[in-house]
Sequence to fold (260 residues):
Amino acid sequence: MSAEQGDGTVGKALDVLDMVAACGRPVRFSELLTASVYPKATLYRLIQTLVHQGMLSFDSDRQTYALGVRLVRLAHAAWATSSLAPIARPYLDELAAETGETIHLAQLDNGQVLYVDKRNSAKPVEMFAQAGKVGPAYCTGVGKAMLAFLPDEALQRAIDRQSFHRFTPHTLDTPETLRTELEAIRGRGYAFDREEHEPGIICCAVPILSRTGRVIGALSVTSTTARTSLSQLEAGADRIKDTAARIAAEAESWRFPEQG
Fold:
């Protein structure tokens, strides 16, 4: 990892936070040093500053670092003021109760999907998408639903950030195949995940758009091939669109960061 040119110390410190967060557990300095592009002295100085500022915590008994309480407070404030989740909560509850399936709410974060809320199905199934996780946009229903309605320049920047890793035999793994898919999504107004990210996981997703057409998020109904089919999910597309429209209307008075 490395900070963008011109970001200086702040960018480097954020890189360190990203490294700690990516580990998903308390981590030792030696592990961070192995993964870091920074010299030992630079990395140590950055970590000490983050600890002093409460962005990282240090366990002296185990000699490990973890994300700090101050960062948790900032994350909660960001969730409350910049996320669709507080607005969308009652609408997700309603859609989950009606469909009995898993509901995902997502926003774009630098061309990737940030899952901001979720409702489990009546019979929960283990899957990648969880609130707070970041996933690929090119092979998820919510990701493609948002990409399809971005302006040309923003779409190109987002496509440039995709890895096009082939997760399953159904993954769209080139910019060309993705663009063809996005044209179809714009035409019908909703997207599918055809087992493109995880085997057996399918969904129907719609964008959440402002009155001016700006992408502010996406909503999906997700299930499994063992329980239902894409055609059955598609039959509920109008209901998902209606929910997305109501979330968008509720969000009109809020100020969200520009997406993508």
Q: What stands out?
A: The chain has two domains: 8-73, 83-251. Confidence is low (pLDDT under 50) at residues 1-6.
